[in-house]
């Protein structure tokens, strides 16, 4: 206890407060980002993927399969049709598997290549680039759009702005009708909506999704990516030094500065200039308005627009491409990127296993189910002729897309008498409650609890004969 605790004197920290005279306290609204058009390999890939995504999204609801809409998520009827597969509330485990597979697929892709989902396949990005493309065709290039917004209202400005917003609203309306068409038969929905005969909820949904699409892709744009989308916040937890992201090679690019095209690269290097000519094209083409030269930022959606813009400039300057590229932190530091690493392999293994289990769950799923409920009022009863009777309720679920006839039989209970219907018809999606009873002479019972099975078999001309077996018990405690 005689030891003294050493005390160290620490000088107080000096707080540097901002000079109010040098700052304007007025509210600064969000500056609009004028995205510049760009051409290149990554832009072509994004356009192909975007057109494919839009095409699949627009065509799928119109496909017919065996007389009904191939993909229809009928919430009112609690039935999801996916071609020949019909999912009911009892099949929600499949939805859980699908969500888990999607989550691990996202983890795997993000660990390998960063936010490429955001840059190439995200609906927000796809619709934003589509809106920007129409905006450019109607109002002109980036510089022309900036001058048009600064100009006073005249006939040319009014008709261009009006046409642009008409096109935007039309795209949003088409998108919302198509989306709602996944939940309501789209052929009737299209006619009823434009003849003002659609239902309240369908009409309200179309209006809401139209406003949301128009607002998100037309006005909010990068706000969704920067402030609303949660993926931007937790993506860094999946990054490592071998993750491929869009990055700027500062060792090669700095010091940046303008220079003439006639001067050779070696001459500029002797002057202390790097390969970056500070043209700011990488900033002008960025849909979120960031400068990739400032390093990795959570706002970057890995769309690669700055890569195409910079490669175009490097080509004109006769410099090697790749000043901005999809690369890793290890590669920028002069090392080698490790493709096969424990975290990525782990995600891949889990993804493969979960995908296999999902496929097995779908393949092994039977479109027929049966539950056995014993009579809760009495364990058994004796009939007038001395037989022992147990009462059951069969809950038969037809999970197929068509009505079927089923035959009911008993296995494992010799000498029984079946009292009730042995053939029933169950409509598609129907749960039939069927009360039945089984009677047997006591001499045929060797135990107080005898296990047996109900067997349900399709008897109509179905493509595939379905059969399910459900175990139950016959009770007679006084044996």
UniProtKB/TrEMBL annotation:
InterPro entries: 4Fe4S_Fe-S-bd, 4Fe4S_Fe_S_CS, Cyt_c_oxidase_cbb3_FixG, Electron_Trans/Redox, FixG_C, Helical_ferredxn, Ig-like_fold. The gene is ccoG. It comes from the Bacteria. Keywords: 4Fe-4S, Electron transport, Iron, Iron-sulfur, Membrane, Metal-binding, Transmembrane, Transmembrane helix, Transport. This is Cytochrome c oxidase accessory protein CcoG. It comes from Paraglaciecola algarum. Gene3D superfamilies: Alpha-helical ferredoxin (1.10.1060.10), Immunoglobulins (2.60.40.10). Pfam families: Fer4_18 (PF13746), Fer4_5 (PF12801), FixG_C (PF11614). Residues 267-295 form the 4Fe-4S ferredoxin-type domain. The chain crosses the membrane at residues 48-65, 94-114, 166-186, 198-217, 344-363.
